[in-house]
Amino acid sequence: MQPVNLFKLASQQSQWLAVRQSAIAGNIANVNTPGYGTAEIEPFEKVLDSRRVAMNATQQGHFSGGVTNAGFSVRNEDGANSVLPSENTVVLENELIKANEVRRTFELNTAIVKAFHRMTMLSVKG
């Protein structure tokens, strides 16, 4: 039986969410640091677009291919937020909104995996 890619996709999204939450936490921790620039993670859709999905060879002579190992890039948001008198670009309200988006997305991810796992277990039982 072939492994189900939904679990791998959910795992990748969970890793991405953890990296994004870490960047948001760093932004919040440095909200009063003069000259600190807001860090943001590239959107998950962009991460998926940069990965090439191909079939893998199961026997010698078959074509080869695979998924590339693209990482998550952290970038500074230039001009996205207003610069404060301390030359800090972190707006606490925006960071809290982003943190809430991460929480909701992680809850949705978990609910989908849980439902898919339940469906898989029911299909194995029956």
Automatic annotation (TrEMBL):
Q: Which domain of life is it from?
A: Bacteria
Compartment(s): Bacterial flagellum basal body
Q: Which UniProt keywords apply?
A: Cell projection, Cilium, Flagellum
Q: Which residues form the Flagellar basal body rod protein N-terminal domain?
A: 18-36
InterPro entries recorded: Flag_bb_rod_N
Please tell me whether the keyword Plastid is annotated for this protein: no
- In the UniProt record, which is one GO cellular component term? bacterial-type flagellum basal body
Stored NCBIfam families = PRK06003.1
What is the name of the protein in this document? Flagellar basal body rod protein FlgB
Supply the source organism for this entry: Borborobacter arsenicus
